[in-house]
């Protein structure tokens, strides 16, 4: 199976966990896109009643176009189930997210969710996260100083750029700096350091934040439960 088929496979598998009446957190990314399509199909064909809370304007647009009711996160008091993608997941279920720039809203939705599922194709699994750069969302004011600080710390920062060579802007109009740190020996220590850096809004290290990972494999989806 090619990567897109694996993404479609886990997208279809994940929506089986959505039950009538649920408030569902909808992640962002190319894998989630398949999941939202599959969820839209259930809404249209089975009359499934759910409310979605999205993690990006992209996902809002897609979900609404499929007839999924969307509410603002502050108009719900909790989210029953969040289904999101990830860029890397390690043996301890630590993840890196934010390859699509949605890490801030994703972490807020993750925080408000009772149950959390990630959907990934098999290429995303690793022993230690870090080969995929860690995205860090920073406010524009003084962002170059934050960048310079990361250089001094040896975090090998790179500005996230758009195709037309402008600094990428998130849904909150912030910048993203990707840290090309390589395999991370202590992700908790790095997370602590990043979140205490003035100017940093959030980072893409998602540690102890998932209950189940559905992995797309050639012989069918594999469900991994967090210990
Ligand atoms: O900001 C984007 C999200 O964290 C995505 O869930 C993550 O980057 C994985 O995306 P994809 O399914 O496209 O690989």
From TrEMBL:
Record flagged with keyword Oxidoreductase: no
E.C. numbers: 5.3.1.6
GO terms, biological process: D-ribose metabolic process; pentose-phosphate shunt, non-oxidative branch
Catalytic activity: aldehydo-D-ribose 5-phosphate = D-ribulose 5-phosphate
GO MF, one example: ribose-5-phosphate isomerase activity
Annotated residues for binding of substrate: 28-31, 84-87, 97-100, 124
InterPro entries (UniProt xref): NagB/RpiA_transferase-like, Ribose5P_isomerase_typA_subgr, Ribose5P_isomerase_type_A
Active site, per annotation: 106
GO cellular component: cytosol
Pathway it works in: Carbohydrate degradation; pentose phosphate pathway; D-ribose 5-phosphate from D-ribulose 5-phosphate (non-oxidative stage): step 1/1
Keyword Isomerase among UniProt keywords: yes
Keywords: Isomerase
Function: Catalyzes the reversible conversion of ribose-5-phosphate to ribulose 5-phosphate.
NCBIfam families: PRK00702.1, rpiA
PANTHER family reported for this sequence: RIBOSE-5-PHOSPHATE ISOMERASE (PTHR11934)
UniProt similarity note: Belongs to the ribose 5-phosphate isomerase family.
Subunit: Homodimer.
HAMAP family the record matches: Rib_5P_isom_A
Protein name: Ribose-5-phosphate isomerase A
Species: Limosilactobacillus secaliphilus
